[in-house]
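Exercise 7.
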Amino acid sequence: MASTVLSLTSVSPSASLSTQESHKGKLKLRSSGLSFNTEKLNPFTNARSFGRISMVATVNASRFEGIAMAPPDPILGVSEAFRADTDEKKLNLGVGAYRTEELQPYVLDVVKKAENLMIERGENKEYLPIEGLAAFNKATAELLFGADSPIIKEQKVATVQGLSGTGSLRLAAALIERYFPGAEVLISSPTWGNHKNIFNDARVPWSEYRYYDPKTVGLDFEGMIADIKAAPEGSFVLLHGCAHNPTGIDPTPEQWEKIADIIQEKNHIPFFDVAYQGFASGSLDADASSVRLFAARGMELFVAQSYSKNLGLYAERIGAMNVVCSSADAAARVKSQLKRLARPMYSNPPIHGARIVANVVGDPALFNEWKAEMEMMAGRIKNVRQKLYDSLVAKDKSGKDWSFILKQIGMFSFTGLNKVQSENMTNKWHVYMTKDGRISLAGLSLAKCEYLADAIIDSYHNVS
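Solution. The predicted structure, written as tokens, is:
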């Protein structure tokens, strides 16, 4: 370990500063402490005797010198920049979190009631099993596939509670790395910013398939099909179950059928990320239709779930990993290995969010109330989407077609703005968003739509 020794010598009436490797028997300042010693000069050599004090400081170089500063997270860093802005017109459209019309965080009424039930029952905080809360796992699988689904009745689904969508995806990535060595994961271009991080950290190779067409601000379906068809047989194909993030562009039911055809033909394994069930359209069943289509075909597949958006449980980190297998025996073995992988990662999942979900889904009255609140949240976002479109059409006299905004679904809209134009949105208009042109309509109010339209029109037409 490198070290630097600084010696400070005080001699009356003058002082001197020197550097030396050691100064035995004199004042020493080190990382472990400070000590003082004095010595007299020989009185016979100098009639004026004075005290001499030396200080020696040893500064050890850090073992972490080789660790560079990490860049800000491209999504969470947006909120940090927003908080530092003092302009009253500022808008945070970066993070996908629902806000009220007053742009305030919203805790669902049904969540409050579910939490009150927990208090009334006096439930404890004991450890959960590795696979999570049994009542939650049952509820989440039935919510996804349907309570009457044959794969549920035949016990062909391995379900474990995960740390929201991110943790569930990471657990699945570990399973792929261990039991499908060399298998590649196909990811849409573009996709949620954390997908690549998850597979990189799990050492799972990935490549991209075409998805977004910048010319139409729509789906490049032909490119998507061609890339899935060209991928090595047995690849994993990561699909967004509904409300594609970041584009908000979903395949039609007929296109989903074609996607399933190609995946079956190539013996690929579909891997769904379902983060917005019920929150996209307002219907739990409609938003699960893509997953249920694949399951009905008898395909083995992965599905990661999150309850951050549809129940507003962002901080509870509650989700699940589901693996649909061809038999109950295979499902039991897969579940055992998911538990084995989870144990050294986080041991077992948190209980609070799991109980909220189980209480809401398991109580008919609360379940109906939840569906009503989801419809309300989805409806507010649809209204904002319509108002933004109307404002753009009314203000932009160029004849540009803004109808793609209405064709998109969910909390996000892909504006088609490039990086430089997105930076203009922030620097000039104080609209905070990701640099790929994505905006979160969940963070927009009806009152702010015209201001946002002005910002988009200016950035699109006046910034190249």
